[in-house]
Amino acid sequence: MSSIKPVILSGGSGTRLWPLSRKMYPKQFLPLVNDKSMLQETVERLQGLSQLSESITVVCNEEHRFLVAEQIREINVDIDHLILEPEGRNTAPALTLAALSNHLDGKDDYLLVLPADHSIRQINAFQDAISEAVKLAEKNYLVTFGIVPTRAETGYGYIQLGDTVDDKSNKINQFVEKPDHITAQQYLDSGDYLWNSGMFMMKTSVWLESIRQFQPEILRCCEAAMADRSIDQDFLRPGRESFKGCPSDSIDYAVMEKVVETSDMHAAVIPLDAGWSDVGAWTELWNLGEKDEHGNVTKGDVVSIDTKDSMVFGRDRLIATIGVENAVIVETVDAVLVANKDNAQDIKKIVELINEQERGEHLHHRCVYRPWGNYDSIDNGHRFQEKRITVKPGAALSLQMHQHRAEHWIVVTGTAKVTRGEEVFLVGENESTYIPIGMKHRLENPGTIPLEIIEVQPGSYLGEDDITRFDDVYG
Question: Going by DSSP bridges, is the β-strand pair 235-237/78-85 parallel, antiparallel, or unpaired?
Fold first, then answer.
């Protein structure tokens, strides 16, 4: 009997939620709606579903691999394949890689395709829709989930309903692009249109046959990449050179729209009214949030006077507002955003401008996450830099050397195992050690609690590229 195999697509960058969302730590890894990250919520809302596979497949960018692995480990869910895209090629190639991995395992599961960054409040309604989708997938339908619209939204694509398939689903007349406001209002008034959610279900074999028929070049490149795959710890790495030539296309464009136009294949949409949001902009978080008597949604240390209908999000400092209306204010340790809510969709233009200026605030937070832990650049000046470094229990940094800087390490919490040249020794709390320029060294945490150190770097050049690695367990 086939199982429901969740395929979580975690390749987004979430630029419209800057400065909280960054390229190297995008929105799917952030706890935006609840205490769990968006990725963790996506996985956990499947628990209790009948026919659910014992493991999931996640497709993500290579640079996010340790974030995905760690967040899935935290919620005690098994990953059978964590597929690392060598380069982003949109959702159709990502799904094809996942389908091929399922096929190589000798299975023909129902692939439940879910973006990693959606919010759904009514879990029972969502799971009921999945159960209905299985019935259609059994009959070789390609199924999508259309969101019952609540407003004339111009930021989503739409699906026009066709004839009924059964009392819970319809055929699809057409997919339509993001409309202007007048057209969106017409769609809403007609009752014949749903928002395009980007969630799908189909048999593995049906997807592979569909992509073979409509986009054979995508299939050819993905098959070649999987034939050249390698396994690295828990990660499945498709062949880079084979995948680089793969066309970039979405599931909608590559297959679904073409299936709708044919008579020998079947596509259906299941209307879904479950409190869905793609959390694509700060206005969406404002819509989802609990508002005070003035229509404000606040998080963090916020004091407001005469402030209305605004989103105020603080991380590290007190935010005080006076006489502000319809605003988005977001504070992080290295950036502050102030915008009119009506311009929230344009925040990605700020990210593009920061990128053009070759600044780093679109890539990383000041606190940078690594597979062994994280470091926070807490101070810097002429010829010096200071970091707070946290190393997970049992984790180790690479054996490395710097050509232009020395390092002083002061242990705040835990015990450090230090390799310095030919020496290996322990450094306890309130103790320190010194790494001269040009000395091979490694920092490890042999203990059971996080290791926290303060690192002071003096030198003529302090860039992160001044690292020569000799051994690295994380590749």
Answer: parallel
Kindly give, in sequence order, each residue whose CB lies less than 8 Å from that of residue 186, ignoring residues fewer than 6 positions away: none
What's the pLDDT band for 94 if we cut at 50, 70, 90?
very high
CA distance 379 to 455: 11
Question: Does residue 475 have a pLDDT over 70?
Answer: no
Strand-pair category, 319-322 with 302-305 = parallel
Q: What pTM did the predictor assign?
A: 0.89
Evaluate whether 133 touches 201 at the Cβ level (below 8 Å): yes
Categorize the per-residue pLDDT at 81 as very low, low, confident or very high, splitting at 50, 70 and 90: confident
Question: Which class for 88: exposed (0-12), middle (13-18), buried (19 or more C-beta within 10 A)?
Answer: middle
Distance of alpha carbon 95 from alpha carbon 42, whole angstroms: 17
**Mean pLDDT computed over 63-67:** 89
Question: What is the mean pLDDT of the segment spanning 380-387?
Answer: 93
Dist. CA 439–CA 96, nearest whole Å = 47
- What's the CA gap between 146 and 159, in Å, rounded? 7
Ramachandran angles phi, psi of 431, nearest 5°: -115, 165
Q: Collect all residues with Cβ–Cβ distance below 8 Å to 387 and sequence separation of at least 6.
A: 375, 376, 377, 378, 454, 455, 457
Contacts of 305 (CB under 8 A, 6+ apart): 321, 322, 323
Cβ-based burial of 475 (10 A; exposed 0-12, middle 13-18, buried ≥19): exposed
How buried is residue 204: exposed, middle or buried, by Cβ count under 10 Å (0-12/13-18/19+)? buried
Q: What are the beta bridge partners of residue 468? A: 401
Angle, in degrees to the nearest 10, between helices 204-214 and 216-227: 120
| pLDDT value for 80 | 86
Directed axis angle between helix 91-104 and helix 204-214, to 10°? 130
Q: What is the pLDDT of residue 264?
A: 67
Indicate if the pLDDT at residue 439 is higher than 90.
yes
- The DSSP call for residue 212 is H
Task: With beta carbons less than 8 A apart as the criterion, state whether 218 and 254 touch.
Answer: yes
Given this model, what pLDDT does residue 261 score? Answer: 84
Task: Decide: 371 and 354 in contact? Cβ < 8 Å.
Answer: no
Distance CA 35, CA 400 (A): 36
